[in-house]
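Human: Here is a favour to ask of a fellow structure person. Comparing notes only helps if you start from a blank page. I am asking you to supply a protein in sequence and structure-token form. Write it directly below this note and I will take it from there.

Assistant:
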Amino acid sequence: MKIITLTTDFGTKDPYVGIMKGVILSINPDVHIVDITHEIEPANILEAAYILKEAYRFFPKGTIHVGVVDPGVGGDRRPIAIKTGGSFFVGPDNGLFWPIIAQSEAFQVIHLTNKEYLLPEISTTF
């Protein structure tokens, strides 16, 4: 079973985490979703980067780690996917994953452009 972790600054008092999980499960209903945290200080990329760097090592190889902490959300920042050491990371191209890349011997980065997996309407939230 594929595992997807979520690290966001969404908080838990609104529907956004649930909506995100619904979108993920609509794409793959067999995935197991693990919440690392949704209590990152709003727009604090450094805090999220540290938490992701510390947490990802405790998950099996092949886990997909999604990070959504982006002060410029809804703008033109492109979503990226990174593969390094058997782990995958998905999020905005804003430096969120730099500590993971910095400690990696090798990595691959791609910009996500397949419209099949993007919502038809751009949200100001995510």
Helices lie at 16-27, 45-55, 98-102. The chain has a mean pLDDT of 91.
